[in-house]
Amino acid sequence: MQNPERVELVRLRLGLTKIGFAKALGVDRKTIQRFESGTHELSSKCIQTLVELSCFPKEFFEKNKFDYPDPGAVSFRSLRSLTATLRNAALAAGALAFELDDWVEARFELPEHSLPQLNNSTPADAALALRAYWGIGERPIGNMINMLESHGTRIFSLSEETRHLDAYSFWRNDRPYVFLNTMKTPEHSRFDAAHELGHLVLHRHGGPSHRSAEDEANAFASTFLMPPADLRARLPVVRGLRDLFEGKKRWRVSAAALAYTLHKQGVISDWHYRGYCIELNKYGRASEPFGIEPENSQVWQKILTDLWRQGITIFHVAQELKIPERELWNLLFGIAAAPGMGERPQPATLRMVK
Ligand SMILES: [Zn+2]
Fold first, then answer.
1. pLDDT at 287
2. For position 353, what pLDDT does the model report?
3. How do 167-172 and 175-181 pair as beta strands?
4. Which CATH superfamily is domain 1-65 in?
5. What is the CA(109)–ligand 1 centre distance, in A?
6. How far is the CA of 169 from the centre of ligand 1 (A)?
7. Which of 101, 182, 216, 344 could make an SS bond with 123 (beta carbons 3.0 to 4.6 A apart)?
8. Are the C-beta atoms of residues 30 and 36 closer than 8 Å to each other?
9. Which pLDDT value is given to residue 340?
10. Cα of 39 to ligand 1 centre, how many Å?
11. Is 144 strand, coil or helix?
12. Boundaries of every domain in the chain
């Protein structure tokens, strides 16, 4: 018997409306409605079409209930320009990530989270308080992904190919999750990671839906990545673009984000700031010079390598979870590479490693 919720999940992943979905399956809208209400089963021909259309195996649809990210608790950047279809497809990817995460959690000891709730502070104070709590003082953050992971945040990649969707984050069973669009520049992605961290510590309760939440998360990210005392000590004056490009190397942010923060702090005058914006705009957001190296996940790399040593690849995990391998790679795209590429793993048997 197919689980209507799982069929719905795959429909959302495919980015289809209910009508479009019925059409793709070669049935009418009523058949789907009856199936959803539990009064009607899908014919084997219909299931076969669904399997071919989605590449999800038949068994996926027969599995039990699953967790789905609560849309009200998720913060999407650029929400207004994001279509419901795209948002639902991204949330459905989140539900698949939960299945992968639970599989991993059953086999590996992963760090518990150490994210305090700082919703009573201003965003800038919260960023400094979190730095103090994590014992990182004022120094620049070498790798945001590793920093988040070492404090118990689960990181996944967003595969939705759209410039409108930067990142999202939420809490699930007292565990923080962050999804990053790894198609963006590394500087952009780092800022997104810090922005989502802001949501996780500032907006856990009450949700990130209020209008100022985005500004708050941005202010948090600015201070977290570029602590004012360190900025003042290292860059008390800006003599030209070259200083901004130099600063990029230290704080690993875009020159545009650095200029914005320095302007906010009064280090750069309005007049100079306008000039820098014009100069930087000529490069475009995606091709600022002195680009930084992309960040990777150490946790995922360790997990994949450890599994691989036991002869378990993502292909085997996909088979066990009844999720297409492509969907799992989408969740890891740009944050973890397959270990042992070019080498042949040992014969596969799944076993517990904990
Ligand atoms: Zn946000």
1. 79
2. 42
3. antiparallel
4. lambda repressor-like DNA-binding domains (1.10.260.40)
5. 29
6. 8
7. 216
8. no
9. 67
10. 41
11. helix
12. 1-65, 67-225+296-354, 228-287
